[in-house]
Amino acid sequence: MRDEEKRRHKRFPLEKVRVELGKEVATLQDFSKRGIGVRLRDILKTGERINLKIHLHKAKKPLRFKGEVRWTKRTGFGSKAGIKLLKGDNKSVDFFRKLYQRFENPVWRRVPDFLLPTIVAIVVIALVGILSAPKIENIAHARAISKYATERLKCPMCGHTSYSTEYDFPDITEEENEKQIVICPKCHKQISYYDLEVVWRKK
Question: I need a labelling partner for 87 at 20 to 30 A (CA). Which of 13, 32, 120, 121 fits?
Fold first, then answer.
C-alpha cells in the first residue's frame, strides 16, 4: 500500500503557496504533520531526496527543509507528489508545527474551558433574539408601511407585532365601528383597537 493511501496524519488544503524543489518549482496542494503534497509540471523520482523552500504568506522567510519523495502520480497537466519532511532549521520546524496545530485545532477548540459556558450563553441569547424578532418577508413593503406608520402594535390574541398601517378594518360602517374594531394581519381575528398594546410610537 502506497504512502498516499495509508496516511497517518490529517491533511489540510493550502493553496497559492509556491514550493521550490531544488531547481523545480511546484504549487502546494495540501500538508500534514510530516509532509506536503505538491503539483508540478515534471515528475519526480520516488525515493529522491531534495531541498525544499516553502514560501508561506505569513512567514517572513521561506521555510527550509530536506525532504524525501514518497510517491508520485502523473496527471493530465503534469504530476502530483507526496514529500516527507525529514528535517529543517529550528524556525522552519517551529513555524510549520504551529501552522499544523492551527488547522488541526480550530479557534473554538482553543478557547479556555472556563469561557465556554459564557460563549454558549451569549450565542443562545443572540439566537433567541433573532428567532423572536418579527419576521419581515418583504423588506420594501415593510419600509413603505413603516414610513407612514405612527405606532407598532401587539395583538393580545397571538402576540404578533405589526405597524398600525398593517391593520385592516372590518367591512362595517364607522357608526357601527364604535369600538374601533381592527383585524390582526397575523391571526386575522377582530380586536378592539383599544386592546392592542403599543410597543413603539413615533414621537
Answer: 13
